[in-house]
Amino acid sequence: MTTDTEHASAAGEPEGPLTGTGVVTKARPPETAAAPPPRRWLGDRIGSVEVLAALLVLLIIFRDPLAAALDDPRIQTWTTVFVSIMVQAVPFLVFGILLSAVIAVFVPRSFWARALPRHPALAVPAASAAGVVLPGCECGAVPIAGSLIRRGVTPAAALAFLLAAPAVNPIVLTATAVAFPNNPEMVVARGVASLVVAMVMGWLWLRLGRTEWIRMPRRPELDDASRTRAFWAAVRHDVTHAGGFLVLGAMAAASINVLVPERWLQTLADNAWLSILALALLAVLLSLCSEADAFVAASLSQFSLTSRLVFLVVGPMVDLKLISMQAGVFGRRFAFRFAPTTFAVALLVATGAGMVLL
How far is CA 288 from CA 11, 208, 252, 297, 302, in A? Predict the structure, then answer.
């Protein structure tokens, strides 16, 4: 025997109150088919193979205009300068990145708290000198310095290491010697000036710095993963940042050699003080990796050795990417005070070192 409810359900009619039964049932919404996903004009996925194929097709189509453009002497000069900088710099960059990742992952961070002197004023020069034997790109030095602070190292010593490590490590000094084969004094001047700047900034922090300006950092890919995964994460991070900035810096240096009239560069280079300030600002803007900046500096042959020394000392300590990283890791209050002060100290120390040693 069927009920009215069953007849209604069988007929596909909505169920409602049944008179005389005292039972109220709720209507079930009709089932609707899932809407098909919208079709994409270029398909579901465009991979690297498709992009490469499209580029090859474009090269074939526009091969004649491209060949004519590459015959331009200015383009040939630009390409020569760019390729020469990249060929010289890439081996040092890769080796520096690998060694920096080894230090960041496999050297226990608690080691620094035990190795440095307990007195903060003595820990500053010791941390600065540690950069001589512990190479690292400035991109990796920022999180390492933050980890040192979190492990109990005094901030003054950690900041001194942050400034010294990218500038005085053996990879950078060797690259500088290769880039300036006829000026070995440039290696000594760069190492001495960078060490002095790092120690002065560490002692200034002891005198004027405040702990509330620093926000404790954390780098999960180095803290929470296995050592192998953390190593490759650190390598990928540094290759992405340092390699990209190297390409941009090499492009900028090549463009300066081609686009800026020679008489303008010569006028700027002839003014000793203006050339120093110009290359200091250029170092901030180019944001080169310290393993490769010596080759860019060597290509700016119109400028004096002192002005190029300023370029090499300022760059690893103050540039756009470092200011951004310091603001993200330590906080904006720290970066907006630390970066301008470091720039002024590096400019003065490097200029003095150039006048004495070069």
Answer: 76, 29, 10, 10, 20
